[in-house]
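Batch manifest, entry 17 of 40.
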Amino acid sequence: MDQIDSDNDFADQHSTDDNDDDPLFDYYQDIARSSFDDMVHDQERNDLYYQAICQSIKKLRYKNPTKAINVLDIGSGTGLLSMMAINATADNVIACECFEPMAKCSRKIIDDNSMSSKINVMNKLSGQLELPKEFHPNLLVAELLDTELIGEGCLSIYRDIIQRKLVDPDHCLYVPTRARIWIQLVQSERLFHCHQFRKSYHFSDNFEAIQSPSSVRNCFGSHLLHDIQLNRLRPDVDFEILSDPMVIFEFEFNRLESLKYRDHKRIHFPLKRSFNQPMMIFAWWDIDLDDDGKISLSCSPYWTRGFNSEHQVAWREHWIQTIYYLPAFAFDHERQLNEFNHNHINQKQTLLIDCYHDQVSFWFDLPDQNELHNPIDVMESESWHCTCGLHSHLSRTRLEWINNVQRYQQYWSCLNERMSTIGNEMLDLIYFGDESILPFVCSQHPNVEHVWIICNDRKSYRFFRTFRRQNEQKIILCSHDSFHQKKNPSTNRAYAIISDLHFRNQSSMLSSMEFLQHLYRQQQFIRNNQNGPRFCFPHRIILRCLIVRFEHLWKCMAPVCNVKIDDRTELNLLEYDLLIMNARRNVDWQFDRRSLWEYCCWPLANETRDILDISMDCMDKNKSMNELNSLLTNGIDKIVEFNIEQLKSTKIDHNTVGIVCWIDQYIDGNDKIIISGGLENPNHLSPDEEIKWIRDQQQLVTFLSYIPNGYQRLNESEKNIELKFQIKMNPMSIKVEIL
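Output type: structure tokens
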């Protein structure tokens, strides 16, 4: 009955970015993406690196007072570590930076700080670097680490340095010297929903639950890296601890035998409690910055240090933590594996974990829990990946959204209410959107004849086809073209339109606003057919905004200006600010897309403001069509006003001030049931209480540093500020300025 013969009916999806043919666009984008975000703002990192550099130089001077201190800085970026070394009395530095715009920028920064006579910036890959014969490094400084530690290729870079004898490890100190990978076993149903689909989706006591197909239940789950601010999770609320932290790998950066490209360890974990939820692994690293191991930097979450709050540890975004997931099928209680029997594990109170790494990544597996030895061929094991084909293109945030059963219950309640007003009339439902369980839930209603799912691409078609095989056959799959060209429900039967406004786009920023184009398609369909829909879910969509202050997220956007390295010295990085800000203004959206629940912030106003209010009023087909048509052709300008007396009275740092936007959907006829993409509690905003954001949705955020003359306009304002939002569809953009 489908109107799609196969997934080959879909044309390949390509980006239609107007900037694809602009050679300057790629140039500016590379520069904008080279931003080190909050790294240069990380005072603890800067202090510890400087202490380690000073201590290493002091140690070298003590060992041989007459020998020159020659420093090699790999991946030098802004030149900050090179300048730290000169300030700590190093004699000469060769700084290696492969990215040409950053190398040029760092030369200017070094010159601005009067150190160009002692620092030579070489624009090369470290693997292509050749040192002058008279230059023999006795101190190597580098910052080559990412959230996974090895994801930027530090193992291969350090190996190459040793193998090509750029330095002599026995006569050269390293900053940092060594690193350790830590893991901790935890259990959590909530976090598991970011990894695997539910086995079933129960939305009503009177109807059968929607079942996940066996191919999904037998799948490993999502293989995407889940980097996350673990400090925002609450022990015994968001997860339960199953084990003490344990070191699984240690790397000595100056020892070739320690820098293995592939390695494996089998770890025996004593369990602190019985497990009754899916397990996962929290991971982080720490480093010894000096040779003696006295100066260390740790990314461990607060509870592992004996603290009670995230505010007791340094905040950073560039080095956060990671969740690694184990094979999802191992935690299916109904189909337990013989080698992973849950009761047996709880009786033993121990668990075996196989830990692996290659040059750039880590992964984990569950061996037969009856084994203790290391299998001979275990080094050949590869990382797990999705086998069902449904996880690989879904973000973990979207997977969590799909698994939110409470939301389906809200839709079901509203569907029942709407159906009760039209008697026993049979309806067809038309679903606009990408991957969702919503059309399967709605298909269970006895007054629904069919649910037509308009698939946007191959990925959504495969998702719906896979779930339909396991569930209700009322589902009809079609593409946009086949739906309009062939017989559809509007020609001979009453119908309604449903959507949860989820649409994928190659650009994560565009997908936040792409729903407007799909709403326009819906309205075109309604206007072109004599029979209007009985109702629409949602029937009203509002784009909202709020002015807030962030505790830390602003550090990812704000100019650096100066970096203080000791009581007497500040280094000028203005040239870096100019480079990055200019590039961002040329290529970036003004707004960034973030999961704001991971970042502390407080409201600077006691209520939100509406930027865009679109009605899907089925009784007046022209009304909403005209609104969308105006937006599509000319764009919309909207001015909103916020009272900022609190901001003025408390002298809040302007760098911390941000503007957040999100979408709220009204799905019932009385505007009482809201599917919010923003606030957990929209009716309560207090300047003294941290905002709670929806976890399975991302929001749009920008800062004053991204708004032209933002600081100046805010200073000129007295009690109120006016924000002018400009929304355009061709090309799609949302911008804000302060009037």
